[in-house]
Every structure is written in C-alpha cells, then in structure tokens.
Design brief:
Protein name: Thiamine biosynthesis protein ThiS
Order of helices and strands: EEHEEE
Pfam families: ThiS (PF02597)
InterPro entries: Beta-grasp_dom_sf (IPR012675), Mopterin_synth/thiamin_S_b (IPR016155), Thi_S (IPR010035), ThiS/MoaD-like (IPR003749)
Organism: Sphaerisporangium rufum
Number of strands: 5
Length: 66
C-alpha cells in the first residue's frame, strides 16, 4: 500500500505500524516525534497504530546545536 513519509511516496506492507515505519526511517531511539495525517501519535501508541492507504506520515528528529 502507498503512504507518504516525510513527503516521499513509499510502498509499505499492509498492516505496517508507526513503530515499523519509524525504525525504517531512523536508527535513533530517542528525540523522535511522529504525526500521521497531521495528528501527533504518542510514542506509547506507535506499536498499536497501523498505517492506512494514503496516510501522510511525518517523522521528525530533534537536533541539538548552537
């Protein structure tokens, strides 16, 4: 099924969770925020939140610096 992750169309397996999508995007274990269709998904819900056809996913990584 097709979804858009960070503005890039991607093909993912049906039933893919937010947690699985994040693990494919970044190896970072902390400092990550995710929104699906403009709604923030709490980290505690990533494993239970399944993506659907046409979903728009934004995976954001916090960056420190000065």
């Amino acid at each position: 099924m097709k979804v858009t992750i960070n503005g890039v169309p991607r093909e993912v397996a049906a039933g893919t969770t937010v947690a699985e999508a994040v693990s494919e995007m970044t190896p970072a274990a902390a400092g990550i925020a995710v929104a699906v269709n403009d709604e923030v998904v709490r980290r505690a819900d990533w494993a239970a939140t399944r993506l659907g056809p046409g979903d728009r996913v934004e995976v954001l990584t916090a960056v420190q610096g000065g």
